[in-house]
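Section 5.1 Outputs to date
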Amino acid sequence: MGESRNSGLGRSQAVPRINVTYRGPADQAKFAFTGSGFLPGRQVRIRAVNNGNLASYSFHTTANSEGKADITIGFAVLPGQDISFAATDGRGSQSDQSGVLWSNTVTVQTH
């Protein structure tokens, strides 16, 4: 598999991609996180933000030898809340105000 030719980024700066699936009920919420494009063997920080009250949560896992990560995260939420997820393996980025290369953001609504 070669580098993406349209990104203008080398392999070390390819933006990770994530997906999150919600399983409820809200008081027993489970979020199945999957991601790829991380540096193999690196710790991956997953940030979850409750868009209603801006509470922020951090979770960690490790990317496998293919740069993939998956983890099921559980925490209680209220029904009808939007929770946004993003992840990073800690690489720097000059194109992000935080100075860190973040994945895409995925927002799920609880029920």
